């Protein structure tokens, strides 16, 4: 095994200018991360300089077997924390050979919204709080829980420390550093209310980059849990009963909201979100009805509400924002399995472009 580890950690830059590029894309389920590697002749920093590539879409539920070719368009580059050196990860979106975005390509429409002049002028910032659950591989039961049984009730686990409170910290810390190495603007981590559940935050990120960075952060976490022999779950309610679900709270501001008098802009934006509540809920993740019950720090899925410092509301405004008269708000409705391209662009579209 030591020889294998030595070979895996070879520094290619000692012997060749060639680099390994890991092409990453989202599969047919909308949550499955796929990737494959390709050798390039030398270092690259511009995604437009990376060649397009194809894959078998019939094996990812994204194309029929008799017309299976799907084309990957490289969109954003990150340093590879696994191979290191000059090797890179590149997030891609997927198109037909004719150049049409395939139905599961949610980045394409998001990029159109974020390139709209009115949206560009507002410089939308996002901070996404990605919750997830670590599961024991063979039984798909939360890490640290007795097999077939339950730990003590919620209370000591949130931001807790100790072998009976924090399960999987090495995975979490490895992911934190790997994301920083990759160039992702990961801003923090914490243990969550349910034992075996954790959170990382990505942001502030502007426009389409929020989706790119969150997807690559998810990919890196999938790879690390693969190494650790642990299953990663983004299910919004992995354990039924008196246990917290998993969300992807999305913090948001525009230039107008961050400027003096911004709270008036925030209130108008929240009013718009309330008018389109059903449309947003439909796009905010599968199985969210199991999480948004009005309990466990959530609002009921059928009712829109907002409040200052209220974690039981659909949208929360922070005390500091209220005090300063400007700032941001938090949309607490998105589920942990939401597509960040969909959620971020929809919030921008509703609050900036939509005219009720």
From TrEMBL:
Region entry Disordered, spans: 36-66
A GO CC term assigned to this protein in UniProt: cytoplasm
UniProt keyword list: ATP-binding, Ligase, Nucleotide-binding
Superkingdom of origin organism: Eukaryota
GO biological-process terms attached to the record: glutamine biosynthetic process
InterPro entries: Gln_synt_N, Gln_synt_N_sf, Gln_synth/guanido_kin_cat_dom, Gln_synth_cat_dom, Gln_synth_gly_rich_site, Gln_synth_N_conserv_site, Glutamine_Synthetase
E.C. code: 6.3.1.2
Domain GS beta-grasp residue range list: 18-99
Reaction equations catalysed: L-glutamate + NH4(+) + ATP = L-glutamine + ADP + phosphate + H(+)
Segments forming domain GS catalytic: 106-356
GO MF terms held by the record: ATP binding; glutamine synthetase activity
Keyword Ligase attached: yes
Keyword Ligase: yes
Family, as annotated: Belongs to the glutamine synthetase family.
Matches recorded under PANTHER family: GLUTAMINE SYNTHETASE
Record's protein name: Glutamine synthetase
């Amino acid at each position: 095994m030591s020889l294998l580890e030595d070979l895996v950690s070879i520094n290619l830059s000692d012997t060749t200018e060639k680099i390994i590029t890991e092409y990453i894309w989202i599969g047919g389920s909308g949550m499955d991360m796929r990737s494959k590697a390709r050798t390039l002749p030398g270092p690259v920093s511009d995604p437009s300089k990376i060649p397009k590539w194809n894959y078998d879409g019939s094996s990812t539920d994204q194309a029929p077997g008799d017309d299976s070719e799907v084309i990957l368009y490289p969109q954003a580059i990150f340093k590879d924390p696994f191979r290191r050196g000059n090797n890179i990860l590149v997030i891609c979106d997927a198109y037909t050979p004719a150049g049409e975005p395939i139905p599961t390509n949610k980045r394409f429409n998001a990029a159109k919204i974020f390139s709209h002049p009115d949206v560009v002028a507002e410089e939308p910032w996002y901070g996404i709080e990605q919750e997830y659950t670590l599961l024991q591989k063979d039984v798909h039961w939360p890490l640290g829980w007795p097999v077939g049984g339950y730990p003590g009730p919620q209370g000591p686990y949130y931001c807790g420390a100790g072998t009976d409170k924090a399960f999987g910290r090495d995975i979490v810390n490895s992911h934190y550093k790997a994301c920083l190495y990759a160039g992702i603007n990961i801003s923090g981590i914490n243990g969550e209310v349910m034992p075996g559940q954790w959170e990382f935050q990505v942001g502030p990120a502007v426009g389409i980059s929020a989706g790119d960075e969150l997807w690559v952060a998810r990919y890196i976490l999938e790879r690390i849990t693969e190494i650790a022999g642990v299953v990663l779950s983004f299910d919004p309610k992995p354990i039924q009963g008196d246990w917290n679900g998993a969300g992807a709270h999305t913090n948001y501001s525009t230039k107008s909201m961050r400027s003096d008098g911004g709270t008036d802009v925030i209130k108008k934006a929240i009013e718009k979100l309330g008018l389109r509540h059903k449309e947003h809920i439909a796009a905010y993740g599968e199985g969210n009805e199991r999480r948004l019950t009005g309990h466990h720090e959530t609002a009921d899925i059928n009712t829109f509400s907002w409040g200052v410092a209220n974690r039981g509301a659909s949208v929360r405004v922070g005390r500091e924002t209220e005090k300063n008269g400007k700032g941001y708000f938090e949309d607490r409705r998105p589920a942990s399995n939401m597509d960040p391209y969909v959620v971020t662009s929809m919030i921008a579209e509703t609050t900036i472009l939509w005219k009720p």
